[in-house]
Amino acid sequence: MAQEITTLSRARELDKEDSLAKFRSEFYIPQHNGEDIIYLCGNSLGLQPKGAANIIQQELDNWKENGVEGHFKGIRPWMHYHKNFTSYWHDLIGAEEKEVVVMNNLTVNLHLLMLSFYRPEGARFKIIMEGHAFPSDQYAVESQVRLKGYDPEDAIIEVFPREGEHYLKTEDIVAQISQAGDELALVLFSGVQYYSGQFFALSEIAKAGHDVGAYVGFDLAHAVGNVPMKLHDWGADFATWCSYKYLNSGPGAVSGIFVHEKFATDKTFPRLAGWWGHNEKERFKMKKGFDAIPTAEGWQLSNAPVFSMAPHLASLELFKSAGMDNLRAKSLQLTGFLETQLKAAENYGTAFEIITPSESGARGCQLSLLFHERGKEVFDWLSQNGVIADWREPDVIRVAPVPIYNYFEDVYRFGELLTQGLTQEI
Ligand SMILES: *Cc1c(COP(=O)(O)O)cnc(C)c1O
After folding, report:
1. Closest CA to 313 of 254, 265, 365
2. Atom of ligand 1 nearest to the CA of 109
């Protein structure tokens, strides 16, 4: 790709040409001294869609007007609330309708899915995952291993970057999976790594795991709404994600799960059961004997948390009208612009460097900047000057320009402030 020229006028020109720029006005942008903040933190908590309040209000009204009958009345009766979400996942993650359900929160779902897909037996008891995975995932895996009576030291294999490198080579992941061979019960990787921003080669990882007879699952917290995926075709067995990062559905908002059709349609596949996963026609007969819904819905335990789901719907509507492939095309350009601008900075390489892969197919929108000096000072300077990014100990600033609401101008202004911060006496 030709190198972008990264000037303010070029940034403004790109915003003018951008057919997705109009989506910014669908979000509330926090303010700093009367101006829009440069919000580059959609990897942590996405901004509020303006449609969120109205859609929550509709459910408050349904409750107010109908009480318990809201389960069957109102614009979206609560009894089937989770079904409002089924049409969105083909575009976002390449799933069939029967493979996805929206429920619970992410770590809870990770546990539920591991109960289904981590069933160690005999010599096959190991789990392979990336080193330095998000702590909640590490704790989830360790506790599952202990529950099954194993020592995490023996049962968990972590794949680390080579000496002096910051992210993983696919060949190293595949080699370690093959090496673990028939001792491997589960391969569990994130889609996009929260710290390095690496987008893993999920189809190759799935293939390698299946070649040794292991199940393969993905934590898509940083991938969903960031990079388009083809989970069904790639053969993932399961996946889960949260909706409050790139999917802008509000703090603690509901999670989603993917269970490949092969297992989703198998009513006898092991799982924890609850009444909301039970055959809908029989649900209110209150009878003994769990009869799983033969789709991912069969993993539901409880009735839907409607108030946390409503804003998710408002956000997914925006993704539907923007289109995930269009968002990705803009995202590549937006992050490419940021990368070019940062690499042109005088102190690039000495004061800081980008540790996210430079190959665009191996990353999402986030760039992780590793500081060799003054990282925290620069971060504080940015915060004082109207930038919201995030700081990860000991020395990384993560910046995530999000195609659905960030302008090229945001990225440009961030780059300028960063170099100012590095060169000025702060
Ligand atoms: C954000 C994130 C979580 C957070 O888990 P919750 O259960 O939603 O609090 C877990 N895992 C990964 C990889 C994440 O990025």
Report:
1. 254
2. 7
Buried b (16+ CB within 10 A) or exposed e, 269-300: bebeeeebbbbeeebeeeeeeebbbebbbbbb
**Alpha carbon distance 78, 150 (integer Å):** 42
pLDDT for residue 1: 47
What confidence category does residue 425 fall into, taking pLDDT thresholds of 50, 70 and 90?
A: low
Q: Answer yes or no: are the C-beta atoms of 250 and 240 closer than 8 Å.
A: no
Helix locations, 68-157, DSSP H:
89-93, 106-117, 135-147, 152-155
pLDDT-derived band of residue 6, with 50, 70 and 90 as boundaries? confident
Mutate-to-test residue for ligand 1 from 41, 105, 136, 312, highest number of ligand atoms within 8 A of CB: 136
Cis? peptide before 161, omega within 30° of 0: no
Ligand 1: does its nearest atom lie under 6 Å from the Cβ of 220?
no
Q: How far is the CA of 138 from the centre of ligand 1 (A)?
A: 11
Instruction: Please report the beta strands in 220-322, taking only residues with DSSP state E, as ranges in sequence order.
Output: 238-241, 255-259
Of 241, 267, 274, 284, nearest in space to 79 by CA = 284
CA of 107 to the centre of ligand 1 (A): 6
CB 298 within 8 A of CB 264: yes
Pocket test for ligand 1, best of 109, 200, 226, 242 (most atoms within 8 A of CB): 242
What distance in Å separates the CA atoms of residue 187 and residue 294, rounded to the nearest whole number?
Answer: 25
Q: Residue 244: pLDDT above 70?
A: yes
Quick check: 311 and 55 in contact, CB under 8 A?
yes
Cβ(128)–Cβ(159) below 8 Å = yes
